[in-house]
TrEMBL record, chains A, B:
Residues 80-175 form the Toprim domain. PANTHER family: RECOMBINATION PROTEIN RECR. PROSITE patterns: RECR, TOPRIM. One of its GO terms (biological process) is DNA recombination. Keywords: DNA damage, DNA recombination, DNA repair, Metal-binding, Zinc, Zinc-finger. Transmembrane segments: none annotated. InterPro entries: DNA_Rcmb_RecR, Rcmb_RecR, Rcmb_RecR_Znf, TOPRIM_dom, TOPRIM_RecR. This is Recombination protein RecR. May play a role in DNA repair. It seems to be involved in an RecBC-independent recombinational process of DNA repair. It may act with RecF and RecO. It comes from the Bacteria. The gene is recR. A zinc finger (C4-type) spans 57-72. It comes from Andreprevotia lacus DSM 23236.
Length: 198, 198
């Protein structure tokens, strides 16, 4: 006696979600099938729609439905500043502070050799191309203050400096080990204002 | 500036999963889109396939792809015993013991008034119909030994007894290989109260 194969397939499929092991996958599958088939159908549709719709902004690499995201398309932003963040959520957090008016570059990750994430897995080549376009004067590195975020920052700073760019790092107003996502906008604004030259 | 709407929709849709709040939903969405689009497409398909394929066994209420599950269709099982469990996973656990050869009834939940799960949300009416079919002689209640599982067991036992059925409850006690030193006082107390004559 085993679970029916379509149920087993659903449980296996749910394990692609980060932080979801066999136990949670099983609980999720039963919940979807037994208590929320409408929500389940909607989830399937949302996944397919997002895959079909979302691409990376040609300039900043964040997720967007068009060729250029709203920010990159905004002529009123300061095109001489380029803020480098790990994830789109970090970009949204910085936007909420209203303390930054330049453009962004979203790495979609951070260097993490142990997880197999090297320079090729984050969009480093595209960032460099972007940073030396002649318009960018200052690169503000706003990766997280985690071990991996810091390593990424140092690696980026080195690359930028050898290309003659001015590089700064948002200030360590964030707690050590802290992530942008978990900090209040005021602290984050302060960290932007007090960015250090690297 | 907000996330693109198809990304926002995906994050919202992921929140139907039990135990997934806004933060995890966001992390899951980025992971699916950035690191595992194949797994994401597969998940969408598995959800749709499971919804389309799975139904409840006409006799025992577990998930099955046919009208009757393998166990209910098995003529060699003891049709006079009916074991009541909360979820299909519980049924699979009992099957693994090879210690039970009767049939099952799967409630697909347990009474939990605080979560809005009353007698109508679990398949009580169908269980009663099944239990009084003339064939069933003994009902073995194997709901969990949680507060809610116990309450469900007492409620069921009462219903069954008034219908003249013999009702039993799986035993509580120390695990096989268990040491008194490592068991909680409540379990040990129950093991003493429910001691068997040798
Ligand atoms: Zn952009
Ligand atoms: Zn069945």
């Amino acid at each position: 006696m085993k679970a029916p194969s379509s149920l087993e397939q659903l449980i296996q499929a749910l394990k692609v979600l980060p932080g979801v092991g066999p136990k949670s996958a099983s609980r999720m599958a039963y919940h979807l099938l037994q208590r929320d088939q409408g929500g389940a159908a909607n989830l399937a549709h949302a996944i397919e729609y997002a895959i079909a719709t979302l691409k990376h902004c040609r300039r900043c690499n964040t997720f967007t439905e068009g060729e250029l995201c709203e920010i990159c398309a905004d002529e009123d932003r300061n095109h001489q500043q380029l803020c480098v963040v790990e994830m789109p959520t970090d970009l949204l957090m910085i936007e909420q502070t209203l303390a930054y008016h330049g453009l962004y570059f979203v790495l979609m990750g951070r260097l993490s050799p142990l997880d197999g994430i090297g320079p090729n897995e984050i969009a480093l080549a595209r960032l460099l191309e972007r940073a030396v376009d002649g318009e960018v004067q200052e690169v503000v590195i706003a990766t997280n203050f985690t071990v991996e975020g810091e390593a990424t920052a140092h690696y980026l700073a080195e690359l930028m400096r050898t290309r003659g760019l001015q590089v700064s790092r948002i200030a360590r107003g964030l707690p050590v080990g802290g992530e942008l996502e978990h900090v209040d906008p005021g602290t984050l604004a302060q960290a932007l204002v007090e960015r250090r030259k690297l």
